[in-house]
Amino acid sequence: MSLPYPAREEIARLTARMLLEIKAVDFNAETPFTYASGLKGPTYVDCRRIISFPRVRQTLMDFLAATVARDAGFEAFDNVAGGETAGIPFGAMVAERLGLPMTYVRKKPKGYGRNARIEGVMTEGQRVLLVEDLTTDGGSKLSFVDAIRDTGATCAHTAVIFYYGIFPETTQRLADHGVRLHHLCTWWDVLEEARAQEAFDEDTLTEVRTFLTDPRGWQAANG
């Protein structure tokens, strides 16, 4: 297992750069994106694109494995679980790098059998790392964590490539559930790198900063 250890700030910058390069992120202040929640905003991210870019994929998975090992410990886990669906490929790749068994967690029970939301072998007492592509407010993570704990395993850590970083209650919400969040970059890192690259016009970047500073206020003002 080869784990590079660049500085945390450099990991964030390079992750943001790669996401911009493969067009996994976009800014559009004139025609806001509609999120799964129904709310709108000028930012968009699709981490699923990463799986189609081998060099970016390899580097980001190295970064994620290194971040988890550095922050949580080298012998902190017995199992890596990917969250259905976007977390499954990333969970598999992180498990490979950490030399651990891989499982995945369904969003809903398949309707029969013991541990109906878990695919693969997860046993009582195992320490499980939950891997997903991103987190917004942490809500979906709690459901996955509960499904893992229902097997008798423990889950005190979740790792994602992208963390929105604009809802201050997210990390506390996870902490209240006994879960620590590990991530590579946030919208603030992407905004800084986009500005450095002059990837978008200044008006767009200014509007995005306004949104990131007060996302709920921006959504109220822009419908």
From TrEMBL:
Its EC number is 2.4.2.10. Keywords: Glycosyltransferase, Magnesium, Pyrimidine biosynthesis, Transferase. Its cofactor is Mg(2+). SUPFAM superfamilies: PRTase-like (SSF53271). Catalyzes the transfer of a ribosyl phosphate group from 5-phosphoribose 1-diphosphate to orotate, leading to the formation of orotidine monophosphate (OMP). One of its GO terms (molecular function) is orotate phosphoribosyltransferase activity. The gene is pyrE. Residues 63-163 form the Phosphoribosyltransferase domain. Gene3D superfamilies: 3.40.50.2020. This is Orotate phosphoribosyltransferase. Orotate binds at T136. It comes from Paracoccus maritimus. Pathway: Pyrimidine metabolism; UMP biosynthesis via de novo pathway; UMP from orotate: step 1/2. InterPro entries: OPRT, PRTase-like, PRTase_dom. CDD domains: PRTases_typeI.
